Amino acid sequence: MYQEERMNAIIKYLEQHERVGIQEICQLFGVSRDTVRRDLLKMEEAGLILRTHGGAILPKKTKEIYEYKERLIRESDGKHEIGALAATLVANGDFIIMDASTTVQFAAENIAAENVVVVTNSIDIADVVSRKPAVRTYLLGGELDPQHRFLYGQSTIAKLADYMVDKLFLGACGISAGGLSYPHEEDGIVKREMIKRASQVIVLADHTKFGAQMFYRISGLESIDLLITDRRPDQEMIDILSAHNVELLIVSEEDR
C-alpha cells in the first residue's frame, strides 16, 4: 500500500472511531512503528490530524471540505498529472465548460490549443484562462461562494441554458455505483446543468474519490463519457464503470 493510500485509510478510520493508536495502525496495515510515525508526522504537517501521546485524533476542520485555495496547495502530484493529460484533449476551436474544481484548474493551466472558448463558474479558472491569448472566456454570473470560489444560483443556471459546448471538464468529490456526488447542493445543481449542455462529459478524479459518497448526488454514471484518473481502480469499480459505458483513462498507464 502506498503512503498516500495508507494516510487516506487512517483518515477514514478516524472519521469512524475519532482516535487511533500507533499500535492499532501497525496491526491494521502491517507496517512498523517507525513507518506509522512518519505517516503521522506528514499528516500533522499537512493539518490532517493532531498527534496525541501514542496516536492521533482528527482536528475539526478535516471533517469539512477545505477552502479552495488551501486545497490547491495540498493537491497531490496525481491531480496535476490528471489535469495535464485532460488539457491534451482540448482541440483547436473547441467550446468547453470547466467547473469549479482544483483538478480542472490544473487542466486549465495546461491548455495549449488555439481558438478555444471556455465557459466557467470558477473565478480562479476564469483568471487562469483569461491570460491565454488563444482563449475566450465566459464567466457565468450568480452569487459568489467566497470560501470555494464558485458562482451559483438561478441566474447561473439560466445563463448555462443558453450554451451548448463540445466538452465539459468536471471535477469529482465522490464516485460510486450510485453516481457522482458533491458536498454542496448549490454547486451540484450547477454541475447537473453543465452536464446537459455538453456533447462529451469528461470527469477528472484521483483514486481517492472511488467509493466515496457525498451529500448531493448530481447524476448517475451513465452521464460520464470519459473518466481520467491517476491509478487503476479495483476490479469492482472497473466493472461498474464498464457497465455504464464509461471510458477509463489512467495517467500512469498513459505515461508507460
TrEMBL record:
PROSITE patterns: HTH_DEOR_1, HTH_DEOR_2. It comes from the Bacteria. InterPro entries: Carb_Metab_HTH_regulators, DeoR-like_C, DeoR_HTH, NagB/RpiA_transferase-like, Tscrpt_reg_HTH_DeoR_CS, WH-like_DNA-bd_sf, WH_DNA-bd_sf. Residues 3-58 form the HTH deoR-type domain. Pfam families: DeoRC, HTH_DeoR. SMART domains: DeoRC, HTH_DEOR. Keywords: DNA-binding, Transcription, Transcription regulation. One of its GO terms (molecular function) is DNA binding. PANTHER family: HTH-TYPE TRANSCRIPTIONAL REGULATOR SRLR-RELATED, HTH-TYPE TRANSCRIPTIONAL REPRESSOR GLCR. This is DeoR/GlpR family DNA-binding transcription regulator. It comes from Paenibacillus aestuarii. The lineage of its organism: Bacteria, Bacillati, Bacillota, Bacilli, Bacillales.
